[in-house]
Amino acid sequence: MDEKRDLDGMLRAIAEPRRRAILSLIATSELPAGEIAQHFSVTRSAVSQHLQVLKDAGLITERRDGTRRLYRASEITLGELRAFFEGLWSTGLDRAKALAEGSNGTGNGSAHR
Description:
- This protein is α+β, with helices and mostly antiparallel strands.
- About 55% of the residues lie in helices and about 10% in strands.
- The protein has five helices and three strands.
- A three-stranded antiparallel sheet has the order 1-3-2.
- Helix 1 runs antiparallel to helix 4.
- The chain is elongated.
């Protein structure tokens, strides 16, 4: 992961359920803020604040089209975040494999049947 990116900031940004829902909405398509807001029972101002947090964390990009602002998830940053989680998952699987194969020093790698 690019050291210039703030992993903690990204994780804080996606900790909020509405922000994760916004990311899901704009993961594959670009949408204006008003259309994003229609999916939530909060004010447009609240949605704008969520968008700003996601933008500050580098998780979304903003493009102007006349007077509209269009938002889309950042494939690069989401890819970096995915790589981080895959690294955690891989490490956990490696530990589980080592334990299952008995390399923890017990020599007991048998599975229950």
